[in-house]
Amino acid sequence: GQQVMQIPQYQHVQEGEDFTTYCNSSTTLSNIQWYKQRPGGHPVFLIQLVKSGEVKKQKRLTFQFGEAKKNSSLHITATQTTDVGTYFCAGVNRDDKIIFGKGTRLHILP
Amino acid sequence: KAGVTQTPRYLIKTRGQQVTLSCSPISGHRSVSWYQQTPGQGLQFLFEYFSETQRNKGNFPGRFSGRQFSNSRSEMNVSTLELGDSALYLCASSPVRGITDTQYFGPGTRLTVL
After folding, report:
1. Reduced to 3 states, what is the DSSP secondary structure of residue A82?
2. What is the maximum alpha-carbon separation in chain A?
3. Residues of A numbered 55-94 whose beta carbons fall under 8 angstroms of chain B's beta carbons: which are they?
4. Looking at the complex, does the CB of residue A97 fall below 8 Å from at least one CB of chain B?
5. Environment class of A87 (CB within 10 Å of its CB; exposed 0-12, middle 13-18, buried 19+)
């Protein structure tokens, strides 16, 4: 079946360093959504990308959707302690099925 | 606006029992989706309801079912519980379509099956 692979599974960074998580789908996606889940919390919607090659920014966060609409990335510049959490991508395929990546857990070292 | 609410927040059941979980979406939202979250499998889509109709369904057995009421509130039922059903069950509401709209998640119901 279709899979959305997300790497890395864990990432430890020093506060102030950059962070990137990547998602790759086995099939072409209609759109991709990104979520953040704090420890003990629930997923919070960050953004949705729809167009091929789309790039969107939210302050220190940059989201990209690949030209083939099969991969996406989230890049955080100059991480802060408030960035701690697990970041999930969720791809929607042509059959309108939403499939989540396993997430990347971000730890910030002070 | 009040957020998505889920009841109960915690539940302990034994194998073979059934359970019903409830979700109240954000006022005005017509779509409710349900997800199962486990450490091993991550977040998995169960189903989506819109205007009292199931619009989309994930790959879960028939023991998992749901429904939506005219006020958009939704319930999810799991029959003949198995140990592997222990998970955090999340519902999310969106204005129209969960897969293309912003989804707002509730706090979840943590189900433990003994």
Report:
1. helix
2. 44
3. 88, 90, 92
4. yes
5. buried
